[in-house]
Amino acid sequence: MAMEMCGASISTTTRCTVSPLVISHEAALGGSLHLSLSLPSPRPHPQKPPPNNNNNNNNNSTKTDPIITNHALPLNNRPPPPLLKTILPTTNTTSHTHLALTATAATAITAITALLLPRIHNDYLTYLSYGPGGTPHNVLGWLIATLARPFGSEMLSTEPYDRRILADGETKSYLAGKDLIRRQERPAMGWHVVPQRQLSDFASGNIREKLINGFTALAAQNPHLTKLAPSNLEAHADGLFVADGVVLPSARKQLLKGEIAHIHRMKDASVHVLLAPADCKKVFEAGWGQRHPLSGVGLPQALGGGVFVLPAEYVFVYAPRTGEGLVLVMDIVRAGVAYMTNSNEVH
């Protein structure tokens, strides 16, 4: 091949090799083209290993199964290529089950809350309607009253007093000669064990005021037997206590740390009072009272700390609604003073 550049003659020789052909190209001014064919040398065939006579003679020789490649498998049974394994997420059955259970639990909790929330709210309002008592008049007090409910017991049977009368011989009644007018029906009571309160048949304002005045006068008329002091059980009221210096049997003196009675003056004007077992029976049978649901359970004092046990003789007396009922309730309180001071001269 001849090329002229700037009047000069250039002679080149080019050799191109293309397997399996080898092409020799000589080009010069007036030259000729030569082609030659170069065939690759044949590759030697691999030699097969000589047969193993020992294997041929071994009747227990095992035959290996032929290897099945992906190309031999049906299309629907072939594993996905590595790239698809990376792109396509695998299914995690455990995670799906956990998520399903969590969703079900959340739905159930939501449904239960929707059903119970109105009941809880109404129950809390009922607790607040009792007015202040020995427990806090707030959510904390409501929680205490709710948690204490399983410890409540039956409140109307006179069997505990029959046992006391038979066992201890306490047959004396301090209501002897008193005519207890039978109450037509018992009032509705709150289900909370503390504070123990009526939900119906409240005393009128006039009757409540007369009851409080009579309670105060009883302490003033019997200073040798009683005194007024903050109640151990009612944080917002004074209680009637055994006066200092009164000699009592040790067991009776320890009852409620000497507290005899107190009035629930903030709401229904009902009364709690300690009575002799025989008088407890009379009050119950006349329909004028009931036991505290926590009788026999140790309770913390509202003031001063310490723990004491509510005795079965700690009786809830229903609020009076008439002048006649007011006289009857004051007679019951006087009977409690006589029992706790072991005195027959209570004015």
Describe this protein's structure:
This protein has 347 residues and is of the alpha+beta class. Among the domains are: 1-38, no CATH class; 139-341, no CATH class. The protein is built from 9 helices and 12 strands. It has helices at residues 53-57, 82-87, 93-129, 139-148, 159-168, 205-221, 250-253, 277-285, 323-341; strands spanning 2-5, 8-18, 21-27, 34-36, 226-230, 238-242, 259-263, 271-274, 289-291, 298-300, 307-309, 314-317. Helix 5 (159-168) packs antiparallel against helix 8 (277-285). It is elongated and about 85 Å long. The termini are far apart. Residues 1-39, 54-71 and 83-88 have low confidence and may be disordered.
Question: Could you list some keywords that capture this structure?
Answer:
Luciferase; 16% strand; four-stranded antiparallel beta sheet; 347 residues; 9 helices; Luciferase_dom; Luciferase domain-containing protein; alpha+beta; six-stranded antiparallel beta sheet
Helix content: 25-40%
Taking all residues together, what is the mean pLDDT?
78
| Overall body shape | elongated
Q: What does the radius of gyration come to?
A: 52 Å
Largest sheet: 6 strands, antiparallel
* Lateral arrangement of strands in the main beta sheet: 5-6-7-8-12-9
N-to-C CA distance: 153 Å
DSSP, total strands: 12
Structural class: alpha+beta
How many DSSP H or I helices? 9
H-E order:
EEEEHHHHHHEEHEEHEEEEH
Indicate the proportion of strand residues: 15-25%
Low-confidence stretches: 1-39, 54-71, 83-88
